[in-house]
Amino acid sequence: MKTNTTTPGSESRLWMAVPAVSFGGIGIELLLFSVGFEHAVWAGIAGCVVASFILFYQAYLKPRKDIVSLFVPLYAVLIFIVPNEISTGAIVQTFYAATITLLAVRVEKLFNAPKPEKRTMKQMLNDYIGRIEPLLAAIDEETGHAVAQSLLTYKFGLYRNAAEKCTETLDRLKTAAPLPTGALEDALLILRERAGDLADSRVTASPEHTFAEADYEYLAIHLSPEQNENPAALDLDNALVLLYAVGIETSPDDEQALEEHQRFVIQILESYKDKLTA
């Protein structure tokens, strides 16, 4: 099924028919009136009514709809067709034609481009998971379970246990098949260091472990240097999102538990929403 829509960024010329037909009808009316034609007024009325339906069609074709323009034919019928106390002479017709001409221009300028769809943070998370599929495909279930347990233990506030889980998972990665990136190992190192700091109630201003430049394509949050006010916090957030993605996609045993904590990951992404959409 074909749908006639105006290509975003381009303008059709249909709107020009609105002033052409409406003012054209008024012009014919005045010409007929000058030669004494008794029913000359109907030429102007017909022009305004037909132009109203053209405006309706123009507004209907747009990706975004202008409710006022869609109801213009009804206004035309009420003003010019249904008997009432409003004059239907050339002056009223001229004002009406000018009004619908302005509406036609407004529709063409403001309603031509489709309304941009805002991506939700959940959609962004799903897109990210799809983007790192090459990494996920290389991780077996046991490794995925170890990753998930490292993250969940940290989330439950068992920081010393979380640091130990990270170490166990890192040891497993050393004996497993090589991964296409070192991002997962770096994420576990970042989480282990942070968990150790929390367990000992200390704050490390400049953490030892960070993501390497080669890891960036596997990270969810990318900021320019001027936007990145706290590199350590960004690394930790990227590590948490990466570990969540690995766990939920590669460890069926932990899927339900991780889904219950999805809001935690969504909140991380939401905290960068303004910067990501800037």
Describe this structure in words.
Helix content is 64%, strand content 0%. The longest helix is centred in the first third of the chain and has 21 residues, at 41-61. The protein folds into 2 domains: 14-110; 121-277, no CATH class. The protein has helices at 17-34, 41-61, 67-70, 72-81, 90-110, 121-131, 133-136, 141-155, 159-175, 183-199, 231-250, 255-260, 262-270, 273-277. With 278 residues, the chain is an all-alpha fold. Helix 1 (17-34) packs antiparallel against helix 2 (41-61) and helix 8 packs antiparallel against helix 9. Residues 1-10 have low confidence and may be disordered. The chain crosses the membrane at residues 12-33, 39-60. Keywords: Membrane, Transmembrane, Transmembrane helix.
Question: What would you say about this model in short?
Answer:
With 278 residues, the chain is mostly helical. The chain has 2 domains: 97 residues; 157 residues, no CATH class.
